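Annex B, item 7. Sequence and structure tokens for protein A, then protein B.
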Amino acid sequence: MRVDLSITHPVVLSAQFEVRGFTVLLGASGEGKSTLIKALAGLVPSTGEPFNGLPPQRRPIGYLPQGYALFPHLKAWENVAFALGGTLKEHRRVALDLLGAMNLAHHAEKRPAQLSGGQQQRVALARALARKPHILLLDEPTSALDASTRDEVMAELISRMHQLSVPVLAATHDASLAAMADWMALMAGHRVVQQGVPREVFAHPASIQAAALLGFRNRFVGTVLRQEEHSGYTLLRWDAAGSTLRVPLLPQAVPGCLVDWVVAADDVRLPPLKLQEQRASENPVHGRIEHLVVHGANTTAALRCGDALLWLTAPYRLADHHHLALGDPLSVDLRTSHIRGWLREPVASGAHAAQRGAL
């Protein structure tokens, strides 16, 4: 899929990526995701494949706008039938069949205000499917859903799309939705910077910007101290925390270079429960618990390490074993293999010398 925009007030946006099953286009607000979806739907002038030159009404797409745009005065089946043109009554049977496919046949006579957010979404989805599209376009599909029902509603939607064998492209800033997809593309700087299977993209973000989009809270800066090529490490000084870390070897790094680095909250390790499972700490980090939240089977904590907050998520049983409490000191381990780093510009030689003197 390739799209280039050309409108009265041009948006510099070039996107080329694959759509596989349920595909998510993930990007921050203002990146142009919604504009891209509208361009594919023919609602914004653009050039590109696969619908170049076709007017909106001739494009074989289904479009689900943000907020669903249901007619409040029409019943559920009438909203669906409206997409088919002609009179509503002549399309009643088709509309009822589509609502049945969304498990909404018993809500056909209700108006949007009488439906939950998830039910409204499925009515809008049935309307989008009425024209038998080759692809379905969703603009921020989780924006009208509350956090408690989001995962359940989207899991059901994705399952139904798989059953119907309709490819989907969903534009969103919600990393949790991207994690549920078959395929994902990351948009930053008005271009696609990474794409792939979610488990691979989340495990190997291509840049610090990609890591931010994916929801990594632990994003920090370090200064290269030296290379330890014989052991496959680069030694960093984490200045904000006053700690020294070994990270996977950064071949182009030289002493004084700045490095953006991340570690997932799930990969910040508490000591294990059993003594026989204990291992030498690769990157011991010491701090004090500043925030503590228990949600379900997990505990999330923020550790104050100098000027930095290091977030960790651990099973409740393990956290309870360690008697985690606000204000308590805590030592954790950052395994070298779990840290991802990217070089920044090298620091000036004078600053480099000053840093060496301070060490």
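Protein B:
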Amino acid sequence: MIKMKNLTLGYKKEIILKDIDLKVKKGEFIGIIGPSGAGKSTLLMSITGGIKVFNGKFEVLDFDLHNIKKKNLIKLREQIGVIFQGYNLVDRLSVLDNVISGMLKDIPLSRAIIKLYKDKELKKAKEYMDIVDITKHSMKRCDELSGGQRQRVAIARALAAEPKIILADEPVSALDPKSARKVMEILKKVNETYGVTVIANLHHLEYAKEYCDRIIGVNNGTVVFDDNSENLTEKLVEKIYAN
């Protein structure tokens, strides 16, 4: 699904990541770890085509990101769900409305504005709310929810777009431990239930080791570890987080 070969990425003239060689298969659950400023978020968000490719090979869902045209960039992003640390919900709208907003590419704007949803759309929304365990709050405004509940709504909204890949940028760093584990469990459940590839940029090492099948360690703008989570030893952790 994702191929990176001798890849160099950055912003304007500044190189952030260099010599990246990675392949991601369908259905993987990957955690990206490393110290602050190592390039984790740049690596994650580059998958949406928003980071400059200086050189190397970069393909996502068969799109070449080195010279991708705008119409293909739109097609690519329609197949990628993104979950942010800050949730990015419309707080004044209900949980249901936020989840259905993930379907907007398939719902005419005229119907969406007046909230005229079809039965099949409501059925899909309920399925996604059920899997993240938020259905009982479906008619609440999102600003009435806790942080953990809001992040679960964000996952359901991402699912509503039926993505092939979900990117989660520090999805639990602002949550208490109980809520964080709930969110990680749901991401794992989504990964296993729908076969969606999940790639999460994680601040907490223990969550990466517990929930992710594969871990990518980034330090000083390059990948220093890429293996199954059970092969991440204390010595390798020290290498990943070395100054």
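Comment on protein B: Residues 177-194 form the longest helix (18 residues).
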